[in-house]
Amino acid sequence: MNENLDQLKDLDVNMYIISKDTPEQQRELYDALAREYGKSLPFISDPDLKMVERFDMKNGDVAYRGYGLLDEKGNVIFHTVNDHWGEQFDQTVKEIKDEYHSLSQ
């Protein structure tokens, strides 16, 4: 995913990675991704999966992979379970952009 972030740069949104990892674990991964790709999205630690649950993406004690959008007030605008971040990233980018652009219509 990190090697393809430029495909999402035209969206006027703040992007984050949410995981239940500790901030220390996230810092380690953030630093590794930044070294490997020259950048990384910032992480949000959600150890109790409260934010994940808000997106309706909780799968037992883990989160489904996917994406979603919150408005300025913290309301979920959309969410999508999607585990195609690698081999089908182009399709994922298209889906994200279609969802995003449908909001302005």
From TrEMBL:
Xref: Pfam families: AhpC-TSA
Keyword Nucleotide-binding recorded: no
Superkingdom, natural source: Bacteria
Keywords per UniProt: Disulfide bond
Positions of the Alkyl hydroperoxide reductase subunit C/ Thiol specific antioxidant domain: 1-77
UniProt protein name: Alkyl hydroperoxide reductase subunit C/ Thiol specific antioxidant domain-containing protein
A GO molecular function held by the record: oxidoreductase activity
Coiled coil (residue ranges): none
